[in-house]
Amino acid sequence: MSVQSVQKLPLAKAINESLRKALDTDPKVLIMGEDVGKLGGVFRVTDGLQKDFGEERVIDTPLAESGIVGTAIGLALRGYRPVVEIQFDGFVFPAYDQIVTQLAKMHARSLGKIKMPVVIRIPYGGGIGAVEHHSESPEALFAHVAGLKVVSPSNSSDAYWMMQQAIQSDDPVIFFEPKRRYWDKSEVDTEAIPGPLHTARVVREGSDLTLAAYGPMVKVCAEAAAAAAEEGKSLEVVDLRSMSPIDFDTIQTSVEKTRRLVVVHEAPVFYGSGAEIAARITERCFYHLEAPVLRVGGFHAPYPPARLEEEYLPGLDRVLDAVDRSLGY
């Protein structure tokens, strides 16, 4: 590691730098989406890329998500590696048919002969004061679909390296970007050797209980662990990083040590990713658990107006309440 290779970057800028590197390294990489070119995206994640790489590599598309993904599938069939931006999470559903029935199935349908190296970037989650269709967390809908990889970084370093790995993948990757963390800064070593894309990471060691989260909620769980430490409670925090596949081995190792697990995500608890994790870990760790696996997440309701989103989103108090309930068994 050299000093020059380490920078402190906002998460959005780390993705921008990763996309820049991919465009510079591989002429088959293309970026497509609504306003990704001249504007640089509504969150400025693609800022400056069209200026430097041209309109044939960074392409402003019509407002037609199904057409954007369908075009990306055709480009992938011709050997390109398209990176598609869906402007907001709730805008992805016009393209859901293309993603689920075509993109996810092409590899299996062709008995492995056809690769689909497509990355679909989706800014997701709340915390920015936006209305419905701009603050959703639909990751479980995609994690349920065989043939798709689904990941979400929680910090700038992961954003940079996971994007590199997603673009290099021959399988389609749904890349969920936690929009309320876009401006959080952390160090990025652009010469590091990254770990596997779908491996979870223990970001804080603990002995009394495991908090498992991904994307925007990792920071909340780290804050909860720090607050609990002031009361003498030792919480381990696991950043899942990937929702499909899920690194159950890392979670299991942690739970066998702490004997308790709370899974946290912004998405509604009902049929959320936490349900699958709770079921699997209960099966794997039944004789280690000293409390049922608990889940913390959003409510099973449409996303509320901005004034109510702090009540809707799981925060520090709801996480600590679940910790207390678990430790109370």
Automatic annotation (TrEMBL):
It holds the Pfam family Transket_pyr. Its cofactor is thiamine diphosphate. Residues 9-184 form the Transketolase-like pyrimidine-binding domain. The keyword Oxidoreductase applies. InterPro entries: THDP-binding, Transketo_C/PFOR_II, Transketolase-like_Pyr-bd, Transketolase_C. It is an enzyme of class 1 (oxidoreductase). Keywords: Oxidoreductase. Signal peptide: none annotated. SMART domains: Transket_pyr. GO terms for molecular function: oxidoreductase activity. Its EC number is 1.2.4.4. The keyword Transferase does not apply. This is 3-methyl-2-oxobutanoate dehydrogenase (2-methylpropanoyl-transferring). It comes from Streptomyces flavidovirens.
